[in-house]
What we know:
Blueprint lengths: L3 E6 L6 H13 L2 E7 L10 H11 L6 E6 L3 H8 L3 E5 L3 H17 L4 E5 L10 H9 L10 H10 L2
Parallel strand pairs: 1-2, 1-4, 2-3, 4-5
The protein binds adenosine-5'-diphosphate (ADP).
Amino acid sequence: MRGVALYPGTFDPITNGHTDIVQRAARIFDRVIVAVAHGTSKNVCFPTDQRVELARIVLADVPNCEICRFDGLLANFARQRGARIILRGLRAVSDFEYEFQLAGMNRKIIPDVDTIFLTPAEQYQFISSSLIREIAALKGDVSAFVHPAVAAALVKRYA
Ligand code: ADP
């Protein structure tokens, strides 16, 4: 499959689950743009620049992948970058409802862009950035779920 896939998210921080999705997508599409949301309504743990920087380190060996931040409406960013595909990850049924709604809304706003879902390998299905943050905040070991650079950033953040 050719074309550009836009993978938007908060990536607060990027986990092995996100990485698995990017690696899969990079084998399917010409180019994957990991779009780190700046103006998110979520209460973030890491500032945007650091979320971008960590994603760059983690995904350094995926050649057809680019990491950038985006502000404002995803639809506008997709149009600006010429992406016809929005990529999202699906872990469990619990993700489905929100993702389904998001995909439907994006289709209303930009009908020519489709949302494609990929599922991660089994061992990554239970990983979420919020759980990782929670474990790190309680001084737990997250090294099995994130890249060493992310683990180090979490230790520093919650020191
Ligand atoms: P958002 O705030 O947009 O949900 P996230 O960074 O939490 O941003 O997630 C971005 C995308 O990656 C979402 O589609 C989410 O379902 C997916 N995702 C998150 N964690 C995983 C994982 N462990 N495996 C596969 N997909 C994941």
